[in-house]
Amino acid sequence: MNKKAIGVIVAIIVIVIVGVSVYMLTKGNSADEPKKEKNETQEVYALKVNNKEIKLGEVFSREKCGQELQYSEVASCAFDGLDKTYTYENYEIKTGSQDKITSIYFIDEGISTTEGVKITDTYDKMVQVYSNNFKNEDNKYIYEKGNTSIEFMVENDVITGIEYIYNN
Amino acid sequence: MKYLKPIIVIIIFILIFIFLNKLLSPKYMTDLVEGNMTYEYYNEEKNHEVIFIGDCEVYANFSPMVLYEEEGITSYIRGNSQQLIWQSYYMLKETLKYETPRVVVFNVNSMRYSQPVSEAYNRLAIDKMKWSKEKIDIIKASMTEEENFFSYVIPLLRYHSRFDKLTNEDFEYLFKTKNSMYNGFLINKNVKPVESLPTKRRLSSYKFEENCYDYLNKITKLCKENNIELVLIKAPSVYPYWYDEYQEQIQKYAKENNLDYYNFKEKVEEIGIDYNIDTYDGGLHLNLNGATKLSKYFSKILKEKYRLTDYREDEQISKIYNEKLERYNEAIK
Q1: Which chain B residues are within 8 Å of A6, Cβ to Cβ?
Q2: What is the ipTM of this complex?
Q3: CATH assignment of B33-159+179-332, given 3.40.1440.10, 3.20.20.70, 3.40.50.1110, 3.30.110.170?
């Protein structure tokens, strides 16, 4: 191998090592660093039940949410931690890491959103209350607020499903 | 001579770099052993007549040692936690570089996931895969939006902050490895009965995505090209729910492609599974007891339907498997 070739190889190796080092120093995210929390003070969707406001992203408490009718937990395939589900008469609260509320799912029409929309209401009522500023995926209509969203499932112009979701 | 000094410096740099890469990468030996599943296959004798591919529903529910003990079937599970369908495809492609089984068993649960789900699971499946075109393809297909390809090439990019979290495991297994699985089967002896499950939710769409069908077609084609019998299965997990609409789509696909499909959830009584004692996590996965029952049941189907060889009569292979059985029997005590 001639001197020129060796010089080129050395230069490439130096560039790679320096490049990787710079990347590592500048790239903050890593395997064990928790993701930075999004601004918790921003406006989010919340469900009002019995004059208490259940906020997505906040830690689940029975004091606020009341005693559930049924509790179930699902373990992940490999990692520690459980997805917990607290079932109430008309809705279900799911929590994820650190017991934060990640979803409020409406089981039936016995409960309305804080803004007054329930399962069996019409698509027109949804638009009237929440505007037509939604994202549409198949028969799903999604309204976003901060790091939360509310999703309506609509079939034949009738709402058949409602879920609040925390987009962490 | 002029270049000797810089070359030595560079070599030292490279050695330090390689060492740090190795030291800081998770070892998956005593904690999160699921991360070593892909790697364990490479140390195996490649003589399997049956290869399982799929997610945790294969590695927790089927015991190749039972298949051998019952019917003399040689098999291996190339499964990982939350192994997505494109990952199963590339795992199968990689496997075919080493061996050509007579039967490939694919668990269809992953048909419900059309997008990369989580980096953590990607890492478990991919980190320890040997470099090949399949590894490059599997990374490209699996990456979530936040991930980048080079962090798989140079793990140090991803794991550099593990410095203060290193444990004894990181040093003990720096240059060595050990098997935690039994031909890809992960033993779990715990018992947690099925008690209550979350509500069966209405979905906005029950139709499997095009992307999933594409990979299922690729798996089917790959098997046909290699003269391999592809068998579709659905493990008998009670959760996540396997909707009737899912079942119908797989039945239709199997019929159209002339494939066998077994949904073991429909055969629970026949198999003898009791969800009070045969699951370790409330019905998501079977425990050792349940997996033994299911494997015994499936071994008969495999043997009769696909006329597999009884390797208990093969001197060379039975010697290997008897050693494996010894280790397995010790572990299940």
Answers
A1: 3, 7
A2: 0.72
A3: 3.40.50.1110
Q: Confirm if B126 and B138 have CB atoms less than 8 A apart.
A: yes
DSSP B153-189: HSTHHHHGGGGGG--HHHHHTSS-----SBTTB----
Digit-coded pLDDT (tens) for B111-159: 999 998 889 999 999 999 999 999 999 999 999 988 999 999 998 889 9
Q: How far is B263 from chain A (nearest CA, A)?
A: 21
Cβ partners under 8 Å of residue B213, min gap 6: B253
Structure confidence at residue A6 as a pLDDT band (50, 70, 90): low
d(CA B161, CA B184): 31
In CATH, the number for domain A46-166 is 3.40.33.10
pLDDT at A28 over 50: no
CA distance linking residue A56 with residue A54, whole number of Å: 7
Residue B309 exposed, middle or buried by CB count within 10 Å (0-12, 13-18, 19+): middle
Rounded to the nearest angstrom, the minimum Cα separation between A41 and chain B is 24
> In terms of Cα–Cα distance, which of B302, B185, B205 is closest to B249?
B205
Distance CA A114, CA B318 (A): 67
C-beta of residue A117 within 8 angstroms of C-beta of residue A159: yes
Q: Provide, as residue numbers in chain B, all residues whose Cβ is less than 8 Å from the Cβ of A85.
A: 198-199
Distance CA B87, CA B78 (A): 10
* Residues in Cβ contact with B333 at an 8 Å cutoff, skipping those fewer than 6 apart: none
Q: Find how far residue B162's CA is from the centre of its chain.
A: 26
pLDDT band at A130 (very low <50, low <70, confident <90, very high): very high
Helix count and strand count (H, E) for chain A: 3, 10
| CA nearest to B82, candidates B98, B50, B65, B60 | B60
pLDDT of residue A75: 81
DSSP B127: T
Amino acid symbol at A84: K
Alpha carbon of B26 to those of B91, B127, B158: distances in Å? 21, 9, 11
Please give the pLDDT value at position A11: 65
Question: pLDDT band for position B246 (50/70/90)?
Answer: very high
Largest CA distance in chain A: 82
Is the Cβ of B145 closer than 8 Å to some Cβ of chain A?
Answer: no
Q: Is the model's pLDDT at B51 over the cut of 50?
A: yes
